[in-house]
Design a protein that fits this description.
Strand content: 35-45%
Number of helices: 3
Structural class: mainly beta
Number of domains: 2
Oligomer: single chain
Number of strands: 23
Length: 362
């Protein structure tokens, strides 16, 4: 990026005499003209040349890798990888995928056995791009791949995206996806546990907020709740406190406005938005509260606590389920997704990894 300010200085000096014995005030005028140029985001790929690569002769349990060198040619900012455009989902469903940055930072762990088809339409954050990053894509044909796939080919689009530093996470199409990871709390931060076999994918509709959730590695017969939370109190959220309160209110009470004094406990016949469990959660609390306090997070789950009519078992989640969320109209940013045991405490099993939901309900 080149951002410059050109100064054009014009000096005007005037002296006038109006009749004998009089004199005019001297004046001087300086004009400074600013030429302003907007910053640019320029993302390029140094490798592979031609922006295509071939992975040939994949054999079961023999990984093959491809390095992609991405380069920021102007302003630094966050970078992302979006996976889509799969030409042969039959074969792609037998190829697992993992991803490492600069040889050390594991983003998708090999031990989690995520398939190419699992990651269809998913956006994966690659971190801050200032200069160059090496992104290593790794592909593994599974041991039990049927013989019928011998000799078949599959094309996949790996879209690398860079945004402005304050932009929300990018979404693609009407049904974008994010990765869910098991997390542990270290200090005040929730940190993903990679490679433990507990992970999921959430795809969501941008307009109606229908969630399609798949979660792997959960207990088969245990009942789980799928939930949404409003943003936590964090300095890096580009949202005012008032906007965070509005979203907390919408998730917890169905009102995209200032938080009500409490969450109504009546059923759907008398309170149209109270279809599922809703409430407010203080930072670090293990249970929901009906009253809002400053700094609380609004929580919406797809089953009331202890009820199994809208919850799902680990077996059902492994196959993938769809849940619909009824919320009032509004713009929702940086909404987190969670999967927790039905009746368990709010330290959860799975949460969004790095990419949060951004959607608008008309």
């Amino acid at each position: 990026m080149r951002k410059h300010l050109a100064l054009i200085i014009v000096l005007l000096f005037a002296i006038a005499m109006i009749g004998l014995g009089t004199f005019a005030w001297q004046s001087e005028k300086v004009v400074v003209t600013g030429h302003l140029e907007a910053g640019e985001i320029i993302l390029s790929v140094d490798e592979p040349s031609g922006l295509t690569f071939d992975v040939n002769d994949l054999k079961p349990c023999v990984p093959q890798t491809q390095d992609v060198i991405i380069l920021n040619d102007a302003n630094p900012g966050p970078a992302y990888l979006h996976i889509d455009g799969i030409s042969n989902e039959g074969l792609a469903g037998w190829i697992t995928f993992d991803l490492t940055i600069d040889d050390t930072d594991i983003v998708v762990d090999q031990a989690d056995h995520m398939k190419i088809t699992d990651l269809r339409s998913v956006t994966i954050p690659l971190g801050w791009l200032e200069g160059t990053k090496k992104v290593t894509l790794s592909f593994h044909l599974q041991l039990d791949t049927p013989d019928a796939f011998q000799g078949q080919t599959c094309d996949v689009n790996f879209d690398f995206v860079m945004t402005d530093m304050n932009a929300p996470w990018p979404t693609f199409g009407s049904n974008p996806g994010i990765i869910l990871e098991n997390k542990e709390k270290i200090g005040t931060n929730w940190v993903p546990i990679l490679g433990d076999g507990l992970w999921g994918i959430c795809r969501y509709n941008m307009g109606s907020l229908n969630l399609e959730v798949t979660a792997k590695g959960l207990n088969a017969s245990t009942d789980y709740q799928i939930g949404l939370t409003s943003p936590e109190v964090a300095s890096w959220y580009p949202l005012t406190s008032a906007e965070r309160e509005k979203m907390a209110s919408a998730l917890a009470a169905g009102q995209y406005s200032s938080p009500p004094a409490s969450v109504p406990s009546t059923n759907a016949t008398t309170w149209p938005y109270n279809l599922f469990e809703r409430g407010y959660c203080a930072p670090g609390a293990s249970a929901l509260s009906s009253a809002y306090s400053s700094g609380n997070v609004g929580v919406y789950t797809f089953a009331k606590l202890g009820y199994t009519d809208e919850s799902a078992t680990g077996t059902e989640l492994a196959a993938g389920i769809i849940r619909s969320c009824e919320l009032p109209s509004g713009k929702y940013m940086y909404i987190k997704v969670l999967v927790k045991e039905d009746g368990g405490t709010y330290p959860v099993v799975l949460m969004e990894k790095d990419t949060a939901l951004n959607f608008t309900i008309p």
